[in-house]
Amino acid sequence: MKNIFAVAGVVIKELYRRKDFYVLFIVTILICLMMASVNIFNDAKIVRYLKEICLLLVWISSIVIAVTTTARQIPAERENRTLLPLLAKPLTRAQLIAGKFLGCWLACGLALLCFYIFFGALAASREHQWPLLNYFQAAMLHWFMLGIVVALTLLGSLVFAAPSSNSTICFIVVGGILFVGRHLDQVALTLLEPTRTIVYSIYFAIPHLELFDVRDLVIHNWPLIPWLYFSLALLYALGYMAVFLAGACLVFRRKAVN
Amino acid sequence: MNSPRPFLLLLIALLVFCFGLAAHLEPQFQAWPGSRAKGDIIAVVLGDSRRLFANTFYVKADEYYHSGYYPTMFDDNAAFQTTHMAADTGAVSSKNHGDEHGFLGPRRNWIDAFGRNFFPDRHTHLDSGGADDLSGSDEVREILPWLKLSADLDPDNVQTYTVTAFWLRERMNNAAEADTILHEGLRNCPESYDILFELGRLYNESYHDRDRARNVWELGVRKWQKLDPEVKKENRIVMEQLCIHLAKLEEDAGNLPRAIEWLQQAQEVSLMGPVIQQQIDRLRGKLGEEFNPLMKPLY
């Protein structure tokens, strides 16, 4: 575990040395403040549109951070020729993958923490209430969703040749799942065989990232998600993370590092 | 070494030429009917595609009215053909049918069943409590940003102005803003009888100014009567409402014959003919009592 945490620590340091997060965070703050300054029928209590815009920007920013940070981890080590010396130390390939994953996931968690604190402050400034448990559920589900994205991107970085192609494919896959993942079974019913079976199989095989998107519940002040279902969703995410990480370890075990 | 003077003079000459050319072209450009610089920045950037966005934001307002419980393009949206926020104003004929509470249908599989815990799955309206059933009806203010954006993007959509004004007046008690948005609508759509109807309601119910209400409603009736017969058929509900409101206004003012005339006009366009006939009979009875007080039975 010590080795894994050491690798993870390096990844976290890399995130706060790079400007990606700061740029996205500042852009989010600026857009939100600009939208908050708009006068809508002289009513200062209108807040939900602001929450929606802020959460949308948080989601986009977090996915961009997760994918771009993870996609360059192993290719960068290979390009800089630091991968071989790293593996020459008492560090297995599986530990390296786990360390990279943990680092990226924790880095995303830190970024999310900043984003959600800003979101909470923005919402509280208009609503004068702070539903902490609702925000906790939303942030945790969001973070676990990013865990799946990080694991998927890490696997992609071992399969695809360049970080750019990996990032593009991951963005398309993640975007596709978020937009149509929930309805893929309905789409399948309108198709003919064998496409129907293929689409239906994809529906059951893909990680349903849209389950973790509880923005509507937060925006419209719906009650808390039952804790049982909340916990099951986290377990579901952990399952997919394990599957993608296992896949990454298998691919990396057979991959030439020089 | 060459003197910089010729270059300087050439530069000045070019600047003077540019300034003169610009001064010559500017009035022509301003007078050109195809100029896009006159419109607002949204119109210049988006062109006519802004109407598409306007409709998206209009529907978004209805989604907010339901606190996020809204069908997607994959769901059965028969019960959401007419936006509920517009139907609830009473001035729009609803084309909705089907079950608005259960557009999601039965649970399709375990992923669908599990997923329904993570998005709004209950039909509510913001003006009657919202998602937590505890909020006040003024929570309906949350639909306003999207309506304002929709009105900015498509200034020709009459319904955006009437719906916005209705909720501002009815639930937010903000008659001044409702007045402003309706007048903005009238500037953009001067022939709109819907806006005139809503403006009359504002004058009558919020300002208690019956004369102005009567004037705008009567103007609304005149504008409706100028429509083509086919268009009239599709917009009968507004005419019916205009006539009924005018009848009520005249009845309250004690002008019963005029009230009966308005009800008769309402009857011509209404699907609720017998109900209106009852009102006409009631007013005729009242009129008879008023003009023949001595004919009342003595015992």
Task: Offer a quick outline of the entry.
The complex is a heterodimer of chains A (258) and B (299). Chain A has helices spanning 2-17, 20-36, 48-71, 73-79, 83-88, 93-127, 132-159, 163-180, 184-189, 195-205, 215-219, 227-253.
Relative helix content of chain B: 55-70%
Mean pLDDT of chain B: 82
Major sheet size, sense and barrel closure of chain B: none
Low-confidence stretches of chain A are none
> Which radius of gyration of chain B do the C-alpha atoms yield?
28 Å
Number of helices of chain B: 14
The secondary-structure class of chain A comes to mainly alpha
Oligomer: heterodimer
Number of domains of chain A: 1
What's the gyration radius of chain A in Å?
Answer: 20 Å
Strand content of chain B: under 5%
Give the termini distance of chain B in whole angstroms. 126 Å
How many helix segments of chain A?
12
What structural class do the secondary elements of chain B suggest?
A: mainly alpha
User: Could you give the count of β-strands of chain B?
Assistant: 0
Write structural notes for this entry:
The complex is a heterodimer of chains A (about 260) and B (about 300). Chain A has about 260 residues and is mainly alpha-helical. Chain A has 12 helices and no strands. Chain A has helices spanning about 1-15, 20-35, 50-70, 75-80, 85-90, 95-125, 130-160, 165-180, 185-190, 195-205, 215-220, 225-255. In chain A, helix 7 (about 130-160) crosses helix 8 (about 165-180). The longest helix of chain A has about 35 residues, at about 95-125. The mean pLDDT of chain A is about 90. With about 300 residues, chain B is mostly helical. Chain B has 2 domains: about 40-170, no CATH class; about 190-295, Alpha Horseshoe (Serine Threonine Protein Phosphatase 5, Tetratricopeptide repeat). Chain B has helices spanning about 5-30, 40-45, 50-65, 85, 110-115, 145-155, 160-170, 175-190, 195-205, 210-225, 230-235, 235-250, 255-270, 275-290. The longest helix of chain B has 27 residues, at about 5-30. The radius of gyration of chain B is 28 Å and the shape is flat. The model of chain B has no long low-confidence stretch (mean pLDDT about 80). The interface of A and B includes residues 46, 48, 211, 229 and 232 of A.
